[in-house]
Specification:
single chain, mainly alpha, extended
């Protein structure tokens, strides 16, 4: 974990957005960083497509974790 310096205006934007979306300021910043990084790495994808990929990745990760737990219980 590290410290990132941001402008007062960006912090205010984070504060307002995090309150509106029921996220912590850190969670909102991480969300914007993740989306921005993925948009730069995949310039042909739209925002909605990026979100769908994130959801699919999370579903696959959850399924793999559940399978791993069930194998450990057997």
């Amino acid at each position: 974990m590290g410290i990132v310096k941001i402008s007062e205006q960006m912090h205010e934007n984070l504060r307002l957005s995090s309150a509106a979306l029921s996220r912590s300021i850190n969670a909102q910043a991480e969300h914007w960083l993740r989306i921005g990084m993925l948009m730069e790495l995949n310039p042909t994808l739209r925002y909605g497509e990026i979100c769908q990929l994130l959801i699919q990745t999370e579903q696959q990760s959850a399924a793999a974790s559940a399978a791993s737990l069930s194998q450990g219980a057997a």
